[in-house]
Every structure is written in structure tokens, then in C-alpha cells.
Give the backbone structure.
Amino acid sequence: MKHFPFKILVLCILLPPLLYVVSLNRLESWLQGRYQAQVAAIYRGNTQALLTGQARLEDAVAKNIDSFLKTLWLPRLGVRLQVMVVSGQGTMVYPSPVAFSGDNLFVADPVTTAHENRRLLNQGLHLDVTVAIGHDTPFSVGLLLLFIAAALVVLGRFYRLGVRAAQAEAQARQAEMEHLRALQAEGSNQLNDLLAQRVQLEEQLAIIRDELSKEKTKAARTESDLIEEMAALEQSLTERQTLQQQLEAQMAELQTRLEQEAAGQGKTERAKTKAETAIARRFEALYKQLIVGERAIRGFVDLPEEIKIKAEEVLSQLNHAPDQVPVKRKVFSKKNSPTVLEAMFAYKGRLYFRRTGPNHIEVLAVGTKLTQTKDLAYLQTIE
């Protein structure tokens, strides 16, 4: 979870049901207003026919509203639509207490029908449309699944970013471990060479001692000369032993560093990842014309504190006035690829960028003279 923001996980869990409830209420209100306007435009129909008594007001309203409801497709997905029409004195017009039938349209006397219709129209008709969406309907289930799918897409995006960050850190950690192992192997080889030289020196010293005992009687070599030669050999042996002890101490220190590196790797990586995420968000908010790559962000975080402000001055200048940034040299220019340029800051800082559009610049790497070789090797891999 160190590469996956916990708050994103919480939001992706809590937001879908919250958005579902809010959206369902908003949809009900919106559909109610929409259907209210549509029904209000058609439910009376031809008022001239009503005033002449050709049809009962209740039957005409029922026919118009029922025809309109048959054209809707949302009720098939579980959206419940209830329409009610009452007169100004509370007389129920729709749904009519008497079911509509095509056979009773012209049964009543037209004069009586016209009089009744005019009476109801004079009272005024009040239309009430109610929309309700149940939580167990296909429409609401589909809406909830839509929000869940969106949350899963966001989770997948952050998961992939976390995997990439973990892979990059693992590669860096592996490179550092291999470097320390190489130093340890080199120290072991030097120690073995010293041990071999020590054996040779001890053999030589033994031979000389034997020769000394045999040649004591000879006049060509004095006792003082032999003693001096033995002292020189013993001094050389002592120096070799001292160097051997120093190398053993260095090997122990390297072993301790390896153990400390393995133990403190987790805390360092978490702190570094948090710092990189904060820097990336700040650059994205401050420098709208720049695209700062992941390697550039990692390089910026690794810069010494005293030159970070100089690096950010160059980024600000690239964002606001890129033509005024002093370019030291062109690093390379592949066919059909933008030219990569190198800018310096704080004497030993290096920043590599290229233009990706009329008003857009991509910052590829940030580092120092010490990381220049690795940065240039990385730039050779960019298309």
C-alpha cells in the first residue's frame, strides 16, 4: 500500500454509493419537471372538441395521457411515473373513476357533455406528475454499476502508477546492492592477495633465517647486515599485516552498510515516494506549460537542498519564457524526434528538455554532473 494512496481507495469505495443516491434524487427531480412540461402541453388536446361536446373531458385527458405514456421507454426500466389531473374544486379528472372506452365517447348528450366540460375547464385543471425510481429497478442498478465501473477505472489507474513506481525503486535498490557487492568482492580479492603475499614473505623469512644460521661462519656477510635485512623483512611483514587489518575493517564496514541499507530501505523509499508525489502535484499546479517526467521528478528530489531553488528557477523560466533559457548544448537529435537540449544551473546542475509543441515543453531529466552519465544513457532510450 506504500505506492497506492489510501485516500483514493477510500474515495473510490465511498463515492459510488454517495453519487448514486444524489444522482437518483436529481434524476427524479429532473424527469418530474420534464414530464410535467410535456404532459401539460398535450393532456387537454383539442379544446374546441371539448367545448362542442364531441368528447368528455375525462376521456380526452385519459386518451392523451395514456398515448403519451406509451411512447416513454424509461418506465420499462423501472421508472415509475404517476400522473394526476384534478379540477379546481377537487374533482378527479385523471385517472378517471370511470375507465376510458372508445365505445362511450359519443353516448352522452353533446350539450350536456359540453356543459360539463366547460364547467370543469372554468374551475381550472391542476396537473401533478410524480416520478419515482426504486432502488431495485434495472435503471437504478445500471446507474450504480456505472459509478462502480468508474471507481474501478480510477483504482486501476492508480494501481498501475504504483506498480511502475515500485518497479523503478526495485531497480534502483538492486543496482545499489550490486554496487556494494562488487565493492565487497573487490575487497575480498585484495585480502586474498595480501594473505598470499604474507605466506610468501613468511617463507622468504624462513629461508633467510636458515641461510643466516648457515652463513654465520662466513666472513663475506657480517652479522649486522643479516640483522638489518631481517628487520626490513619483518617491517614489511608488519606493514602487510596492518594493511590486511585495514581491509578486513573495510569489509566489515561494507557488510554493515549492506545490512543497514536493507533495513532502512523501506523507510527511505516511503519518504522518497511521498516527496516525489508532492513535487509532481506542485509542478503540475504551478507549471501548466511543462510536462515534467517521472525521472525528472526523481532527479529533482535527489538534488541537494542548496541547488533545488536554482533548478526550480529554470523550470519557472521554461514555463513562462522558454526562449530566454540559456542552452549549453544539444545532446542529440534523432530522425523525426524533437532535439534534446541541456541547460545548467548552480554550476553543477543539469536539466534536459525538449519542445513537444508550440507552447509545450517536456522536462526529461534533472540531475548533477555526478549523474550526467546515467542521464545521458537514459536520454538515448527515448523515442
